[in-house]
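Section 3.1: Structural characterization of target chains.
Under the original work plan, the team committed to producing a structural model for every single-chain target entering the pipeline before any wet-lab resources were allocated. The record below documents one such target. The sequence was received from the expression subgroup and is listed exactly as submitted; it comprises 463 residues.
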Amino acid sequence: ILNYDIMARFRRRTCIILLLFILFICSIMMALKTLRPDRAGFGDPFGLGLLPELQQQTVLLDSKQNSLNRAQGDTVTRVSNLHSIAVNTMKASMSPVKKMEEELSSPNYNFHIFYYTWYGNPQFDGKYIHWNHPLLPHWDPKIANNYPKGRHNPPEDIGANFYPELGSYSSKDPTVIEAHMKQMRSASTGVIVLSWYPPGMADENGEPTDGLVPVVLDYAHKYNLKVTFHIEPYKDRDDRSMYHNVKYIVDKYGSHPAFYRHKTSTGRLLPIFYVYDSYVTIPEIWANLLTVSGSQSIRNTPYDALFIALLVEERHKHDIHRSGFDGMYTYFATNGFSYGSSHHNWASLKAFCDSNNLMFIPSVGPGYIDTSIRPWNNHNTRNRVNGKYYETAFSAALLVRPEIISITSFNEWHEGTQIEKAVPKRTGQVVYLDYKPHKPNVYLELTQKWSEKYRKEQEQWLM
């Protein structure tokens, strides 16, 4: 009996000790769990944010793994549709994007940047498009005879004075579109002003690009960017065709979360349409579309919007007002080239707009050079001066306190106004310009700097 009691007490003591040990282990695990960040998931090491190098390596590993997964998925599913490929690409890379989100500058939706999707190469388009731009002759035959003729021959010889870091890319390549979105987001721009022609139409050197709009919208949304439209001077553009094309854009793309709407002073949320070469059409035709009493009026309909005209000459400001436009922009990145692009005229243009309830949207650019396609146009070249030209333009724009600043451009390579990454390149007799002594992303960094400065100054203006 004594031995039985001793054994029973021993078992109870052992069970109690074991129970206490289990409780201790559980409490330790709970304590560790509360220390772990909420955002951490499996494979996301604790304290990753404190080790930038490790974080970068992890993002690269995730990207490589996602690329492998995409390749395997494409092999299995045989996806041929461009939009489907882009969607699959985005889904596979969402994890790295979320990790990079904190590193990217917040988008500034008052910084609008002109963007072109007209480039093509054999891999995606069966041929080069736009990179093989022809040399445009001068209108005076006597002058034209002094300059070379023909076309550029990519990939070594392209229609640009600078050379892209991404090479002679295709605008259809989803990896290129994503790289562009990441660059624009890193520059703290917020709204992409997409060059647009109606379905089946294109510029004289390009191919139709409306089919790319859904992919651009999807990638823009992934990087929290918005998209608006830069309506180009397509054939037979008038009040009727503009009504139908605006309706087409709003009906087809207006429900996308990346479709941009601007909040007006009255609280309305309206799309913005930039209208390039608007002055080609007489004010009476525009008034049919843009005034309440017009025969083709778009006002107070579901397709109403803010329409922004291009101002080149001083007299255009009166035509723009009579036409019923909501504002004006200056586009050209050439200080002194036109009345509108001359910085010293911006104050008077802003005053005119203020007195007539119009928006004034100055366009700033990093420089201008188009001698690769207009070899006779040296006099309009504007040297970048290692970024000083760009900063001078921003400074002039901020002086007039605009509601929106537009940037010419992200990737208009033919006219050398791009802020996209460019690299040094020498091939044969061609030596391309570059951004040295700075890095390829210098103009993205300058844009981000002025975006933050503009944001802070706007806060002061509103006080």
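Residues 31-80 have pLDDT under 50 and may be disordered.
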